[in-house]
Request: fold
Amino acid sequence: MSEAIELLKEIKKKLEEIDEKIENFMGFCELSEKELEMIDKDIEAYEKGELELIDIEEAKRILNV
Reply:
C-alpha cells in the first residue's frame, strides 16, 4: 500500500511541475482578447463533453502534413 502512495505522490509532483511549465510557457504568449475567449469557449465545451476531438493522424490528414 505504501508503494502505491509513494507512486501517487510522485505523480502529483510531476503534474505540479508540468502545470508550472505550462504557466511559464503561457506567460510568454501574448494572446488577444478574442483568442482568450475562443480558448475559454473550447475549455467550456470540453468540460461539457461537447468538444469534438480528433486524433493526431486525422489532424495531419486535415492539415496535409
Remarks:
- Helices lie at 2-28, 33-47, 56-63.
- The chain has a mean pLDDT of 86.
- DSSP finds three helices and no strands in the chain.
- The CA atoms of residues 54 and 60 lie 10 Å apart.
